[in-house]
Write a structure and sequence with these properties.
Blueprint lengths: L4 H19 L1 H9 L9 H23 L9 H23 L4 H7 L3 H13 L5 H21 L6 H23 L5 H22 L10 H29 L1 H5 L5 H13 L5 H19 L9
Subcellular location: Membrane
Organism: Piscinibacter terrae
Keywords: Membrane, Transmembrane, Transmembrane helix
Length: about 300
């Protein structure tokens, strides 16, 4: 049974909402950790603390909704999702953003849609059309070209952290999408966070800043955003989108995420938006639109 156009459209809209929320993660994480010249919250604290706070909110949500406990067969996927989205991505992103601006991080992680699509195609044995892959590769090529132009061809150590963040996220997203086929999207991220609490809560406490009063209020604001929105509410929309519209298809909406992050970095961090960014943004959005028209041979979520 193939995914209907109605479900696919809904999935894309849910996915876009999740992408908008996630796009703010870059400038907000930069606010939280601060640059190397003026460090704020420790990257390890941001990683564990945001997951611990979101985990506490998840406990309340699961209790209020009387959500059923995960089955034993689902624990493996929950563990993979936790390692990818709760630990890997925020840790490597926080480490990178100590060294590079949010705009730089946004363009490097623009390869995430292709990584997610590849991971999904392998995990779910999906067979997207050649045209679909051409659009996906073209979109990622535009992102990488933009990164190369902005970075004058240099590959920094922080870029390695960013690519590790991409790999972790792609795998974590696919595991979460797999879980979304057998439980509600909201419950997926909640159980991932709750079952991670025995690790994230102690690590957050041990890595907390020595003098919390010395941390800028804006850094705490950034930490609050990545905890409540990036780590929790954003996944409500994202996993619902992946489940309804198909992981390979909806993952391509992420192609616009780096450019949304660039736009958000202007008012939040005061970074300058160059005209070239607008050109590349329009080009990437065009590949997403064309890719949506390409057959992807997806199976419906159950």
């Amino acid at each position: 049974m193939t995914i209907s156009s109605r479900h696919e459209s809904r999935g894309l809209w849910w996915g876009l909402l999740g992408v908008v929320i996630f796009a703010m993660t870059f400038p907000m994480t930069r606010l939280a950790v601060g640059p190397s010249s003026d460090p704020q919250l420790p990257p390890l604290f941001v990683t564990a603390g945001r997951a611990a706070l979101a985990g506490a909110l998840s406990l309340v949500y699961l209790a209020l909704t009387r959500a059923p406990k995960p089955q034993r067969s689902q624990l493996g996927a929950i563990a993979v999702s936790a390692l990818g989205t709760v630990v890997g991505f925020p840790l490597f992103l926080s480490l990178a953003l100590r060294e590079v601006p949010a705009m730089h991080a946004a363009v490097i992680t623009g390869v995430l849609p292709l990584g997610t699509a590849v991971a999904a195609a392998i995990a779910f044995r999906q067979r997207p059309s050649t045209g679909f892959w051409i659009c996906a590769v073209a979109g990622c090529g535009l992102v990488l070209a933009f990164a190369a132009i902005q970075g004058s061809g240099h590959f920094q150590a922080a870029d390695g952290f960013l690519l590790l963040a991409v790999a972790c996220t792609a795998i974590g997203y696919v595991a979460g999408a797999q879980l979304s086929r057998s439980m509600r999207a909201e419950q997926v991220i909640c159980w991932v966070l709750v079952l991670s609490l025995p690790v994230t809560a102690p690590v957050a406490w041990l890595s907390r800043p020595v003098d919390a009063s010395a941390i800028h209020p804006a850094s705490w604001l950034g930490f609050g955003y990545v905890s409540v929105f990036s780590m929790w509410l954003g996944f409500f929309a994202w996993y619902r989108g992946l489940a309804q519209g198909g992981t390979v298809r909806v993952s391509q909406v992420q192609l616009v995420q780096p450019f949304l992050a660039l736009l958000f970095a202007v008012p939040v961090l005061g970074e300058r938006l160059e005209p070239l960014t607008v050109v590349f943004s329009l080009a990437v959005i065009a590949t997403v639109f064309i890719g949506k028209k390409m057959p992807a041979n997806l199976k419906a979520a159950t």
